[in-house]
């Protein structure tokens, strides 16, 4: 039902490997009102989309051609972090009005893009960028084992986090 | 694109009142796709909350406003964090402009 696009290529080098440090997991609960607004079929479709890969981004446009600056910034961050393309899925909300409205209610979040990691809502562009800058995102992605492993490169282990 | 009555000042007033914000900067970043704002919000209510919870608090306080505009960005700090960062940066750190082109939102207008 929902169109899925994936990275067609690895965007950039993998992020430096960091020790896994447990972080607090954000959780969300939907109110009864929100459940009523969102149809069962849309909810099920979004459930599936969220579970379709370990890292899922709901965005405007595609990773190759983002249609909004915030979606572009978010995709760039995931690329810089070195998210494994095989563990990533992007959903273009512009192709699906039901998804576009539904995801806002589903996540209780008013804007696009929206990032999910292991089916948990992480946040929108502001949060993605600030977690990228603070190093929290690198820690989380490492912990969830969703970064591309550069097997052929011997220098990967020696890389420093920027 | 319908114009709304939402302005930098009305958002600032709403945040000051609804979140007990001690300092708010709101900047219009409207580009070609409708009204857009970015903000720096300093409130003691953010204490003890992670980034996601802080943004959810702001989103809830501005639910009607955000629903009417095209884009919204926020940086949420406690008074202590803000003071610390101001001391470190010399006060140059305003609302976030990541994802914009020179402070203006670009993208689809739909």
Automatic annotation (TrEMBL), chain A:
MF-aspect GO terms: 2 iron, 2 sulfur cluster binding; disulfide oxidoreductase activity; metal ion binding
Keywords in alphabetical order: 2Fe-2S, Iron, Iron-sulfur, Metal-binding, Redox-active center
Superkingdom, natural source: Eukaryota
One GO cellular component term: mitochondrial matrix
PROSITE patterns registered for this protein in UniProt: GLUTAREDOXIN_2
Alphabetized Pfam families for the sequence: Glutaredoxin
Biological process (GO), any one: [2Fe-2S] cluster assembly
Glutaredoxin domain sequence ranges: 55-122
InterPro entries xrefs: Glutaredoxin, GRX_PICOT-like, Monothiol_GRX-rel, Thioredoxin-like_sf
NCBIfam families: Grx4 family monothiol glutaredoxin
PANTHER family, per the entry: GLUTAREDOXIN FAMILY MEMBER (PTHR10293), GLUTAREDOXIN-RELATED PROTEIN 5, MITOCHONDRIAL (PTHR10293:SF16)
Name used for this protein in its record: Monothiol glutaredoxin-5, mitochondrial
Organism classification: Eukaryota, Fungi, Dikarya, Ascomycota, Pezizomycotina
Automatic annotation (TrEMBL), chain B:
InterPro entries: BOL2, BolA, BolA-like_sf
PANTHER family attached to this UniProt entry: BOLA-LIKE PROTEIN 2 (PTHR12735:SF27), BOLA-LIKE PROTEIN-RELATED (PTHR12735)
Molecular function GO terms recorded: 2 iron, 2 sulfur cluster binding
Residues covered by region (Disordered): 77-110
One Pfam family, short name: BolA
Protein family (similarity comment): Belongs to the BolA/IbaG family.
The protein, known as: Protein BOLA2
First and last residue of the signal peptide: none
């Amino acid at each position: 039902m929902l169109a899925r696009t994936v990275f067609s290529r690895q965007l950039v080098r993998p992020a430096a490997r960091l020790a896994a440090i447990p972080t607090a997991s954000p959780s969300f609960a939907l109110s009864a009102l929100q459940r009523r607004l969102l149809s069962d079929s849309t909810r099920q479709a979004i459930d599936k989309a969220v579970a379709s890969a370990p890292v899922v981004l709901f965005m405007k446009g595609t990773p190759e051609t983002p249609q909004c600056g915030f979606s572009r910034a978010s995709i760039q961050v995931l690329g810089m972090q070195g998210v494994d393309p095989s563990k990533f899925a992007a959903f273009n909300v512009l192709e699906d009005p039901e998804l576009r409205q539904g995801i806002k209610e589903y996540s209780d979040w008013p804007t696009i893009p929206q990032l999910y990691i292991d089916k948990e809502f992480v946040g929108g562009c502001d949060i993605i960028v600030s977690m990228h800058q603070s190093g929290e995102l690198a820690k989380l992605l490492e912990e969830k084992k969703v970064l591309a492993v550069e097997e052929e490169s011997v220098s990967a282990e020696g890389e420093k986090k920027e | 694109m319908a114009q709304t009555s939402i302005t930098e000042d009305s958002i600032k007033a709403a945040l000051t009142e609804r979140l007990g914000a001690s300092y708010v900067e709101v900047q219009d970043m409207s580009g070609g796709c409708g009204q857009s704002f970015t903000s720096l919000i300093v409130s003691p209510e953010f204490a003890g909350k992670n980034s996601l919870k802080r943004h959810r608090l702001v989103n809830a306080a501005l639910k009607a406003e955000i629903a009417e505009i095209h884009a919204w960005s926020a940086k949420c700090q406690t008074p202590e964090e803000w003071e610390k960062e101001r001391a470190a940066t010399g006060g140059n750190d305003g609302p976030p402009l990541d994802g914009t082109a020179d402070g203006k939102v670009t993208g689809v207008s739909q």
